[in-house]
Known about the structure:
Blueprint: E1 4-5, E2 14-17, H1 22-33, E3 37-42, H2 50-55, E4 63-65, E5 71-72, H3 75-85, H4 97-119, H5 129-149, H6 160-175, H7 177-182, H8 186-196, H9 199-204, E6 217-221, H10 222-225
Parallel strand pairs: 2-3
Antiparallel strand pairs: 1-6, 2-4, 3-6, 4-5
Helix pairs in contact: 1-3, 1-6, 4-5, 4-6, 5-8
Amino acid sequence: MIESIPVAEPLYPIFYSFRRCPYALRARLAIAVAELTVAIREIELRNKPPAMLAISPKGTVPVLWLPDGQVIEQSLDIMRWALAQRDPQDWLAGLSLADAQALIEWNDGEFKSHLDRYKYPDRYPEYPQAEYRRQGELFLAALEKRLHRTRFLCSERFGLADAAILPFVRQFAAVDSTWFESSPYPALRRWLDSFLSSALFDAVMHKYQPWQANDPVLLFGGQVLA
């Protein structure tokens, strides 16, 4: 899964990641499925490396630094970059990009806001935790309805919307797993469970030590994971 190369700088795109971050997770999913290879640098949020901040002062992951100097700082842009080069599992095939984009925007906007408050109710004392969960359930119910119509969110095949949204639903489910297991979303649970038990999920959740300057290059991606 990991390959070390004893050189000062990688000849591959440099990918800054944080294992548990849902944005970084969905970017890793696209890179792995596209069978691209990047030099992965796991970071610590409380100790962000100066090398990352030098190219991306916003200080959030993921960040992809291409050999030509281009920096891609948004997870969806990284996903599109990867799939534009190779899409062997047809994540974009038969997909209404407008439909997928609208669903992802709901996830990244309103649902993510409710998720943050549900996870950390002490930081948001305006309402009880159950109210934040109720608000988040509006999105879960919409996903459940879709999954009764098709096997995946936008079609009969796993695609861009599934990969972009699953990491966030995973976090929501983990806040209170007992509640989630008895919640009225059986299709959503099957969809999530199938993802969590997949070889792809195992591959992209490999645990790396935080990167430090002068560390050996660690390669991540489909060609390395195969």
